[in-house]
Amino acid sequence: MSQLKHSMWSVSALMLSVTVLLMGNGLLGTLVPIRANLQSFSDLDIGILGSSYFIGFTFGCLTGPMLIARAGHIRTYLAAVSVASIAALIHALTYEQLTWWLARATTGFCFSVLFIVIESWLNERSDNSTRGTVFSIYMAINLSVLMVGQFLLTLADPKTFALFSFVAILFSLAALPVAMTKAQSPEPIPVVLPSLKKLYHLSPVGFLGCFAVGLANGAFWSLGPVFAMDRGLDTSGIALFMGSVILGGALGQWPAGLVSDLVDRRYVILVGSVLAAFFGALLSTVSFSDTTVLLAAGFGFGCLALPLYSIAVAHANDYASVSDSVETSSGLLLLLGLGSSIGPVISSLLGDLTNQQSLFVFTAGTHLLLAGYVIWRIMQRAPLLSDEKGSFSDAAFAAQTLAPIEEIKVLHEHVE
Q1: Is 403 helix (H, G, I), strand (E, B) or coil?
Q2: 142: domain CATH number?
Q3: 265-to-273, 293, 318, 385, 387 alpha-carbon distances in Å
Q4: DSSP string over 205-233
């Protein structure tokens, strides 16, 4: 317990900063598509907005370790927060689509770098006896403040400058605890270039699972607020809808993971994908007036769709050796980023072609295709024995980790 207190005290300034930072990002992520829709952006324009964020995010994951090696964790963190604040305000100064796309890509890049700093810092300030608890606290903060950020939408009219200013204020406030901390910066992060071909041969279901989850979840994060607007929800209703999905994802993560420790993880991915497709189909057909059904279906979708990435990561980790651990984790993150970059555009194009909101039609189709592939792979490859599998709780921390840091190496000690 004393070691845990020491670990938490050593990152207390960082945790405070993370709380304010992610609250602002939760607000901005929902505000941007709402404001774009109010400014009469087309579905394709909004889809590209979402893709731009994830393109920037992916690029940041690949280049962030080099930036940290050059400037150190604290200076890199402060620089990324500063640029993210500028990018948030740009949305309120102009409504030109290209400028918004560049601003979203910049925000995605900044937050990938920020996550690398945050999670590598947490990793270095904890040890094997406290790492699980430290990252559990971090994940709880992450999901909680992301949900709180949705309800900050109700503080002002999305048509005004105020909410973008509030985001910039939160980002700027988040810099203060880190700027004033006396803590020593962690060691630089290693740079690894993954081989996607090698990763596919290692774990086909992990490979396609992470990419498919990126397609579906990237589309949801980018177009979910617009879907809620098209269903006639006001600002409070949009916040409730997005919050219900996030809450479902938070509550569904661990039950699904614990079951996957007991059975072949591919069956959990299969069942989760089929049920996520069901809730996607329900959301695509629910009546505009059935707000209760809409929120309940959103909760169910989040409960089943959002944990799939962690389970796919855990499945791939089951087959990875210690020597391949960093490359494997980096490759899975790259696949998630690539899928998230493509998904919003495909979903918005489908909507333009059908002249209707197609977000959850797209997610349902993606989850069904993933389920079909998993069935095929189950017939091709025997499952691992239970003593050959790693622990989902460890792998889930790796799924949240946005850089190939030492913590990923630790979890693979269970595999050999």
Answers
A1: coil
A2: 1.20.1250.20
A3: 12, 30, 10, 11, 13
A4: HHHHHHHHHHHHHHHHHHHHHHHHHHTT-
Question: For residue 21, what are the domain limits?
Answer: 1-181
Domains of the chain: total? 2
**Do residues 235 and 347 share a domain?**
yes
Cα-based distances in Å from 95 to 35, 160, 331 = 10, 13, 35
Q: What is the mean pLDDT of the chain?
A: 84
Is 229 in contact with 37 (CB distance < 8 Å)?
yes
Q: How far apart are CA 254 and CA 270, in angstroms?
A: 17
Three-class SS state of 39: coil
Residues 213, 133, single domain; the answer is no
Tokens of 173: 């406030």
Tell me the per-residue pLDDT of 33-73, one tens digit each, with 9 for 90 and over: 999 999 989 889 999 999 999 999 999 888 888 888 888 88
Question: Which residue is associated with the tokens 């791939």?
Answer: 316
Per-residue pLDDT band for 355 (boundaries 50, 70, 90) equals: low
